[in-house]
Amino acid sequence: MLSHAPRLTAVLAAAAALALAIPATAYADHDDNGTDPDNRNQAVKGFSLTTNGTNAMNQGKAELERSVITTSWGGGDIEVYDSNYGDSGWHGRTDCTNWNALWTSCDIIRVRFNTYQSKTASQWRSLGCHEFGHTADLGHRKGSNDSDNNSCMRVEIWPTHYDQHDLNAIKAGT
Ligand SMILES: [Zn+2]
């Protein structure tokens, strides 16, 4: 979407839905309508992560660094967990656990990686890139607008980076 002006109904709807799963219904626009970061400086912390989860987190953080968002370690903005969440149908989820006072942006964004399904090292990196993309307000891409198949915001393939379209969208949306 082009505007990030607060719209209460949309915010409430997003709050009700909260979780953004992969794979899930693809979003038509380039905004996940749920986890707008509250600023462009995001402190990241992982909580008792597995090696795979750590690798995913590191990839996501590094990919954010390619955008207008700067990152640091320490937490308070992006908090990362992994666990065997079971056969829940999703590899990763990103939601907001602490909205700002007006519910227009998210102070603390939670990222969860599901260890239930086996994933290759590259798929773990893709998952980290993908979920951290949601923390930067990116929605899903699809083949029709990612014809060169190089965006990790795709849900059916596993690229490991943001493409220029993603980076531009982060700049426009945060
Ligand atoms: Zn997603």
Main attributes of the structure:
single chain, 174 residues, alpha/beta, Collagenase (Catalytic Domain), 6-stranded mixed sheet, 4 helices, globular, disordered N terminus, binds zinc ion
Describe this structure in words.
The chain is an alpha/beta fold. It has a single domain (8-173), classed as 3-Layer(aba) Sandwich (Collagenase (Catalytic Domain)). It has helices at 8-17, 51-65, 121-135, 164-173, and strands spanning 20-22, 41-46, 70-73, 78-83, 92-99, 106-114. A six-stranded mixed beta sheet has the order 1-5-6-4-2-3, covered by helices on one side. Helix 2 packs across helix 3. The structure holds zinc ion. Zinc ion binds next to strand 1 and helix 3.
Helix and strand topology:
Elements: H1 8-17, E1 20-22, E2 41-46, H2 51-65, E3 70-73, E4 78-83, E5 92-99, E6 106-114, H3 121-135, H4 164-173
Parallel strand pairs: 2-3, 2-4, 4-6
Antiparallel strand pairs: 1-5, 5-6
The structure holds zinc ion (ZN).
Task: Briefly summarize what is shown.
This protein is an alpha/beta fold. It has four helices and six strands, in the order H-E-E-H-E-E-E-E-H-H. Strands 1-5-6-4-2-3 form a six-stranded mixed sheet, covered by helices on one side.
